[in-house]
Amino acid sequence: MAGRPREFDREQALLQARDLFWRQGFEGTSMSDLVAELGIASARIYKAFGSKERLFREAIAHYEAHEGGFAERAFEEKASVREAIKQMLNDAVALYSHGDLPQGCMVVSSAVSVSEENQGVRHWLMEHRQQRTQGIIDRLQAAIEAGELPANTDAESLGDYFAAFLHGLSVQARDGVSRARLEKAVNVALTMLDRSPA
């Protein structure tokens, strides 16, 4: 008598797919890669998630709701803008250099390798990055309005700086730069909050 098929754990499959996409990106991950990683037939993957793109989008959503949601958590937990930005950057370093997870930011790393033929995915990832940038700008603007930062602080430029720095941390982590060096870089970046606007 043939054995019963292995029980399918959708949440576990999603986590495995997330880590594979995190390491290899959307285009660098084939359906055969997913079959090998998840240990289930492609038909079961399609039945559970619909398509590779839908699985990728769900994996990104899971990442942002959990590991990648550090910026939103920092802004909610810290009243001081300096402490909020500091926690956001330090949490990013901890995540991007975590030994048990793929290196860097899943959204940033995935976006680097998406070609024109997958414009829908590329645009969607761009929107995610823009939303994070806007979140930083909004937090800085709130600090200006509360008198925590000088009234002539340029929230947009400063927000763009910290967003670019976050993306750079991801690339540096993937390049193998140590956590200690990244943390020192964060301390330098935080001095931007202490400078008086020109």
TrEMBL record:
Domain HTH tetR-type, residue spans: 7-67
Annotated protein name in UniProt: Helix-turn-helix domain-containing protein
SUPFAM superfamilies reported in the protein's UniProt record: Homeodomain-like (SSF46689), Tetracyclin repressor-like, C-terminal domain (SSF48498)
Regions annotated as coiled coil: none
PROSITE patterns per UniProt: HTH_TETR_1, HTH_TETR_2
DNA-binding region: 30-49
InterPro entries to which the protein is assigned, alphabetical: DNA-bd_HTH_TetR-type_CS, Homeodomain-like_sf, HTH_TetR, Tet_transcr_reg_TetR-rel_C_sf, TetR_C
Gene3D superfamilies, per database record: Homeodomain-like, Tetracycline Repressor, domain 2
Keywords carried by this UniProt record: DNA-binding, Transcription, Transcription regulation
Gene Ontology molecular function: DNA binding
